[in-house]
């Protein structure tokens, strides 16, 4: 009995409070855990010097890379973005599910109009059922070259990692650097209809490293203690390059991808595409060696086009107690061997090793049945330029990219607003093809006609429909790996293979037990990828290649997920400060 009428008032109150704590501990504990965290992002220009050249770049709060966001699973994030630069800006919180908060997802003209100079927008969302490493970046034109940063989602308080607690956690962000203004680079390429100029360097945490010109002092140093375990939070923020990553004479243990725990596996080399994140454990040597170790990353490239083949380096340095070894610059430097730039065999083997943890605590909720099936070709082609354009392709054509031969045309207003207010006429159509308009030998000899169509077309899904999507690379212009990112969802990679997908044979080998769960996955060069996901998040969700050059050429589309019947299955109205076009 928690109180009685004969008790004094204050004793009765105290006893009721204590009873509440002991009888409903989860309620008080849960309420304590849910924290609202506020950040302010001032988009501003900042002079930065790399490769002995100084230029003004777009940054958040003058930082490059940008500030780290730290939260716990279940926290609410309120991030005010104020635009002080001449460019229109949006920020995407890459990998955040945005459950019923699609207005905060960030891709320009998909879920919002951009934030114009002198304006601001508050991104307000809750981290639901996720923990691990994600990242944020600009989602308009090529501004994400310098507008990016890490998102670290810690487990709920008093919840442990499914692996030994690391001594320290360190974000490692891979990027690209251009000496030129990247907005001018992509604008010039668009005008000519050709591929844009290549980057001048790759970077680790914004620094090119020892092997780059004039960059000896522009090298990130990872200082470690012997006999400790470090959690490295790897993020590939590069615009156009998948990357191999390795640390000389050290083995890495992969424990998480795209903020989803995986069955741990050891590897000397990690493959990570633009958009992906990978958490690895680094166990340092028991005694400090008399040497330094290069941390290196360089591109994995499978397409016909030229690419920036530069290797970026950081340094792993041990803390030495001996004063004579405190100056590590004189110690020998070991460099890690990396695969050949086009090692598709390594890529396939590495990706096949990634498996969901699939435990009682972290189950792999793979859709066992399928309501809707789609077969999408992804690849390159050409499109006709108008008479007023001077494109440098054959017969006044430009390079294009497409999904099911549809090169996506960005609208002039946000798709989500048009959908929510039932004003789709003239903005988008719902006739995106579920299959290629013309069947051909996708990875063999390409068809004679490689012209693509264009349009702002979407697929409409009912709430809670289970979807199976097969993504097929094509050999048009050249086979190439395409890292596809789906906003608003995680998907399960139930199958992948070389050549053309066989709808009769290949599904028999689908992994429906512990497939990798991701938000970004590489379609194999000259191969296919099979995904499944549940359309349980109402809104408009972008899907695109995370090689920015391919996105610029049109390799993108959108899914509309309709509201469900219940209140908690519907998208709320937009916030009052949603930017206007």
What is the topological layout?
Layout: H1 9-23, H2 25-33, E1 36-50, E2 53-60, E3 69-72, E4 76-83, E5 91-94, E6 120-126, E7 132-138, E8 148-154, E9 168-177, H3 182-192, E10 201-204, E11 221-224, E12 229-236, E13 242-247, E14 252-257, E15 260-267, E16 269-272, E17 277-283, E18 292-300, E19 312-318, E20 333-334, H4 344-353, E21 372-384, E22 397-403, E23 406-408, H5 415-420, E24 453-455, E25 458-461, E26 465-473, E27 482-486, E28 491-498, E29 516-518, E30 520-523, E31 527-535, E32 539-545, H6 548-553, E33 556-561
Parallel strand pairs: 1-4, 3-8, 9-12, 11-19, 18-20, 21-26, 23-24, 25-33
Antiparallel strand pairs: 1-2, 4-6, 5-7, 7-8, 9-10, 12-17, 13-16, 13-18, 14-15, 14-17, 18-19, 21-22, 26-31, 27-30, 27-32, 28-29, 28-31, 32-33
Question: What can you tell me about this protein's structure?
Answer:
Residues 3-7 and 13-32 have low confidence and may be disordered. The chain is globular and about 70 Å long. It is mainly beta and 581 residues long. Helices cover 10% and strands 37% of the residues. The chain starts with 8 loop residues before the first helix and ends in a 20-residue tail after the last strand. The strands form seven sheets. It has a six-stranded mixed beta sheet, with no helix packed on it. Strands 11, 13, 16, 18, 19 and 20 form a six-stranded mixed beta sheet that branches. Strands 22-21-26-31-28-29 form a six-stranded mixed beta sheet. It has helices at residues 9-23, 25-33, 182-192, 344-353, 415-420, 548-553; strands at residues 36-50, 53-60, 69-72, 76-83, 91-94, 120-126, 132-138, 148-154, 168-177, 201-204, 221-224, 229-236, 242-247, 252-257, 260-267, 269-272, 277-283, 292-300, 312-318, 333-334, 372-384, 397-403, 406-408, 453-455, 458-461, 465-473, 482-486, 491-498, 516-518, 520-523, 527-535, 539-545, 556-561.
């Amino acid at each position: 009995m928690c109180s009685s009428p004969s008790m004094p008032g204050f004793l009765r109150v105290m006893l009721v409070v204590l009873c509440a704590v002991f009888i409903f501990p989860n309620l008080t504990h849960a309420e304590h855990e849910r924290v609202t965290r506020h950040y302010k992002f001032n988009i501003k220009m900042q002079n930065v010097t790399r490769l002995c050249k100084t230029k003004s770049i777009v940054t958040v709060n003058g930082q490059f890379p940008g500030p780290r966001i730290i939260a716990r699973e279940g926290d609410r994030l309120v991030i005010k973005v104020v635009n002080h630069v001449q460019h229109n800006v949006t920020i995407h919180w890459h990998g955040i599910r945005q459950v019923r908060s699609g207005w905060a997802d960030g891709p320009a003209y998909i879920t919002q109009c951009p934030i114009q100079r002198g304006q601001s927008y508050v991104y307000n969302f809750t981290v639901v059922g996720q923990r691990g490493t994600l990242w944020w970046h600009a989602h308009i034109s090529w501004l994400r070259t310098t507008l990016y940063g890490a998102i670290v989602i810690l487990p709920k308080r008093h919840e442990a990692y499914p692996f030994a607690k690391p001594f320290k956690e360190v974000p490692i962000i891979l990027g690209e650097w251009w000496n030129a203004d990247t907005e001018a680079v992509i604008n010039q390429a668009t005008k000519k209809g050709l591929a844009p100029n290549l980057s001048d360097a790759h970077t680790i945490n914004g620094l090119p490293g020892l092997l780059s010109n004039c960059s000896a002092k522009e090298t990130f140093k990872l200082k470690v203690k012997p006999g400790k375990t470090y959690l490295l939070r790897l993020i590939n923020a590069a615009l156009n390059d998948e990357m191999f990553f390795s640390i000389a004479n050290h083995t890495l243990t992969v424990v998480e991808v795209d903020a989803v725990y995986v069955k741990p596996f050891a590897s000397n080399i990690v493959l990570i595409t633009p958009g992906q994140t990978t958490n690895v454990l680094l166990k340092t040597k028991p005694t400090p060696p008399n040497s330094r170790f290069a941390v290196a990353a360089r591109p994995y490239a499978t397409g016909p086009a030229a690419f920036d083949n530069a290797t970026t380096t950081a340094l792993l340095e041990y803390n030495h107690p001996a004063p004579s070894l405190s100056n590590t610059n004189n110690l020998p430097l070991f460099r890690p061997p990396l695969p050949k730039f086009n090692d598709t065999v390594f890529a396939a083997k590495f990706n096949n090793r990634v498996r969901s943890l699939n435990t009682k605590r972290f189950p792999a909720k793979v859709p066992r049945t399928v309501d809707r099936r789609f077969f999408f070709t992804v690849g390159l082609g050409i499109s006709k330029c108008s008479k007023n354009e001077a494109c440098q392709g054959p017969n006044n054509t430009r390079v294009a990219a497409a999904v099911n031969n549809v090169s996506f045309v960005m609208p002039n207003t946000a798709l989500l607003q048009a959908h929510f207010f039932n004003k789709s006429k003239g903005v988008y159509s719902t006739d995106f093809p579920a299959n290629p308009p013309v069947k051909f030998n996708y990875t063999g000899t390409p068809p004679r006609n490689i012209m693509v169509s264009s349009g702002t077309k979407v697929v409409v899904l009912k709430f809670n429909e289970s979807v199976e999507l097969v993504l097929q690379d094509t050999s048009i212009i050249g086979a190439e790996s395409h890292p596809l990112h789906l906003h608003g969802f995680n998907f399960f990679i139930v199958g992948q293979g070389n050549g053309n997908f066989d709808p009769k044979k290949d599904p028999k080998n689908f992994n429906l037990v512990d497939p990798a769960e991701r938000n970004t996955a590489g379609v194999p060069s000259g191969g296919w990828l099979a995904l499944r996901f549940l359309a349980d998040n109402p809104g408009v969700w972008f899907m695109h290649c995370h090689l920015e050059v391919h996105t610029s050429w049109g390799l993108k589309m959108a899914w509309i997920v309709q509201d469900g019947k219940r209140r908690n299955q519907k998208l709320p109205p937009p916030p009052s400060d949603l930017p206007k076009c």
